[in-house]
Automatic annotation (TrEMBL):
It comes from Hydrogeniiclostridium mannosilyticum. It holds the Pfam family NikA-like. This is Bacterial mobilisation domain-containing protein.
Amino acid sequence: MRKRNHIIPLHLNKKELAHLEAQVKTSGLPREEFLRTLIMGAELRARPCDHHADLLHKVAGLCNNANQLAKVANTYGEASQQSVEEMTNLARQVWEEVKNNW
């Protein structure tokens, strides 16, 4: 048995329907879920961009490398110049990605 048994007919003109469809597309939710979310008063945000997952992956890699570099530095009392340069290059790549796509 369905949990949602109440149906509410809604009449929209072309402009209202176009606006609704644009908002639904931006949210990434199905239309019914979008409307339910609005009714419940939740804050809706736009769906993350396609490059969002790639950016998160790069940031995670950057953090992982930073942790490895810190571990080596703590263990041996220093880090190699190559490790520091690699870390710096990764940080620059992530910064460029954020700057160009956000």
